[in-house]
TrEMBL record:
Residues 521-684 form the Acetophenone carboxylase-like C-terminal domain. GO terms for biological process: glutathione metabolic process. It comes from the Bacteria. This is 5-oxoprolinase. PANTHER family: 5-OXOPROLINASE RELATED, HYPOTHETICAL 5-OXOPROLINASE (EUROFUNG)-RELATED. GO terms for cellular component: cytosol. One of its GO terms (molecular function) is 5-oxoprolinase (ATP-hydrolyzing) activity. Residues 218-504 form the Hydantoinase A/oxoprolinase domain. Residues 16-197 form the Hydantoinase/oxoprolinase N-terminal domain.
Amino acid sequence: MESPRKTEETRPSRLRIGVDVGGTFTDLVAVMQDGRSEVFKVPSSPADPSAGVIEAVKAAAIGLGLGVPELLARCDAFVHGSTIATNTVLERKGARVGMLTTAGFRDSIAIRRGLRTNPWDHRTPFAEPLVPRHLRLGVRGRLDVEGQEIEALEEADIEAALATFDGYGVEAIAVCFMNAYVDPRHEQAAERAIRSLGCELPVSLSSALAPIMGEYERGSTTVIDAHIRARVVSYLKALEERLRALGLSQDILIVQSNGGAVSVDRVARAPVGICLSGPAAGVGAMRYFGKMCGTDDLITMEIGGTSCDVTMMSGGRAQLVDLYEIGGFHVAQPAVEIHTVGAGGGTIARVDDAGLLICGPQGAGADPGPAAYGRGGKDPTTTDALVILGRMRPGPIGDGAIEIDEERARAAVAEKVARPLGVSEEEAAAGMIRLLEQNLLHAVEEISVKRGVDPARYTLVAAGGAGPMHGAAVGRMLGCTRVYVPRHAGVFCALGMLDSDLRLDFMQVTDVELGDTGVAGLDAALAEMGKDAADEIAGEGYEADAVTYEAELDLTYKGQLRALRVPFSRGVDAASDIRSRFEAEHQRTYGHIKPITPIRIVGLRLIATIPAIRLAAPRPPAADGPARAAGSRRVYVDRTAGWLDVPVYDGAQLRPGHRMDGPLVIQEATTTLFAGRDDVVSVDPSGNYLIEIG
């Protein structure tokens, strides 16, 4: 079926497709060579996520006036982000894992570090390990801290363990031996023994996945990899096969937790690397929109239905971490630093036993959703409050898929917030929004102020379906002068995937004191890592001259536990250059330095990158007159102004050059923008919105 909107002249000749599978919707963005983009949303299929992707492709084909085979034949890149790895861990629906550890250390992943996320919470237990104790089995054999063999590996123990695993129906094996990060030979020998004994189960080695000091972190990462491997790989392989059968000739690229993209075959070797696949695509989106608003210093606040993901980019580089937590388990993989809070359009408000208003972190989800959706939801949510305040209009949204009912919203807020607090429905709704926006403010401060960074120097990007509604208010509280709102804010990550570079990370543990002798030895180590990188790049099907390499060092003061990462230029940097760089980062992070304390190099990193072909910025036709409001309605603006008649603009009618004074509401296909008093909203040359905070 062809869309009547598209003629032969307007159908795209070549395009790129980004698909983001979320819990409620699967988003597809098709970007043409001239930068124009089309957005398509279909319901996700939790039981079979690939079905949602295929339905999104079919919807795009219809919308672009093409058949599915023709659409895929014109596709130059198909980039995909998915929460399947995350959900598999959170739901504990992966493979049954058996774990081989050094004899005497099988309880390390249960003991953990003994540290709690909240030191004042002594009652909440740690998450139960993904491997029960009876499937964590010790193997005799030991290497010392320098990689010297103390005790030979006992293969009879491996054989006995396999018999136990077989009896319990184990589906994957994780191997984590002491000091394997220094020398992987015992782990590699264990894998060979497993294969020689006829076992064909997937095997995950800690030395291959996370060659770092810290047995618990290595073990946790390896277990997660084994747990998710079968489900992730089978899904991605099946999706790729289905798309190829429909006409796609390109390899699918999958977004990793580090914000880069790789092939399905590369993911299959280490699925744990895509645990943050979906939200990490925001890095590409930040880079893309940073070009449009003319800055490399951005903070993104992506607000969806139940949560808000906050990320920061300084000087064009996203902040990365080497260790993060998911579902109560630690993952030692390079990842974009994302701070997530339970604050979104479906966040539930309640009054506690002390009479205090609480907002979140619980959410109403897609089913039943906010009370205003009329799907059986009874709890008051952010969306219900926005409807009461006039910032969201009653009536159909999402092509009529949902009908917003103001009376249901009022009933929920009245029963569970207004009456318990002894205030009006409007006052209760305003309090809910103020509290939610305070939570959003604290989320931004968590990755900026607590890192010694002043967020007022940054441009705040309000993304996600709910981001444009709260962006101006949060930007004002942060002291930002500008808030940037993408026109397609609701598909922010799907668009960002198309600007994601291919990226591979390599790491080697070292332990030498910083000095000219130690620095000289790094070049040889990096050369060896470069050979490994070149082999992997060739395996991805890329030419060696397309690759750019960056080296980084993990440094600590002697006796310090946590390392800081600084860039390193091979053959250029002397020890004094590295020390200056480290101390500047230490001062920024911790507020002090130790000028006479020796510095140790504890890790060496090599990042291989193949830059993506950058998306062209769209250039829609400029405005030929002033912006005209489509109407107006009564809206609660703030505590000072109260209720005002506010102009409401149809985003589809706004063009570059239009400039509007707040307060105002702009209604887009996938989001709604609200700007307050004294704010000025302009449409930039790319068709996106820039809010100048008054």
